[in-house]
Amino acid sequence: MTRPNVYARFANGLSPFWRQTTGGSAFLRTGASGLFLVNEGASKHAYTNAQIDDYRTLPRAHFPWRPPLRLSLRARFSHDSGHLKGTAGFGFWNDPLRTTGLRRVALPQALWFFYSGPDAAMPLTLDQPAWGWKASVIDTRTSRFLLQAPLLALAAPLTRMPLFYRSLWPAVQRAAGIAERTVPAAMTDWHVYTIDWQLERVRFCLDGALLSEASHVPAGPLGLVVWLDNQFLQFTPWGKFRWGLVVKSEVQWLEIDWLAIETAEGSTRTA
Q: Which InterPro entries does the entry link to (predicted)?
């Protein structure tokens, strides 16, 4: 399938290319300065989400994006890491929990810049914090993970003990293709974020400088998502699972100045 380049400035609104989601007190706004995803405030009783994506009505097999390609965008947030509540970010994933559409639940695949607030706890790597603003990759839909999954499930109770956790978790991390790196920059400042998704590696760049690189990458197809919401997830290797909503007393937003997807397969499409 031909995948044209995509270029969006948002000054003239959102084109039909984008599927829009607004829930709770969230809304989308466009103008000369770009696209704003805004949450005016949220409670623990209502999910609040501002989102654009390009896959909402599609089955996973028809999600638009496979490597090789490069996603670049210029963005900033209203609050810095630790002060922004909920989750937010941009990049590619397979929507494993079927947050949109009528697809079945699936094992996760993602490569994106992902933020989770201090209410979250997802210690997916030994050398990175369990929450924060990160460049992140996960690819559990591979033969290496599926073959090891039964053994990993049997070993999971041992990870409750710190010694066994530090011994066993690196094997799980490799099998699931997990790689994370904290983004060492203020979220409130303008930055150009880049995901260079190739067949055998992915590179994350910040303002043109290499931030991290991983050799285990999803093959796709994946969809592009940009979002800001008020949820948190606590998911630990030792079996803790908790999902919930956080209160946002202040207005919070994500601003996108421009967004581009560069492929090698055709002309540029204005979105």
A: ConA-like_dom_sf
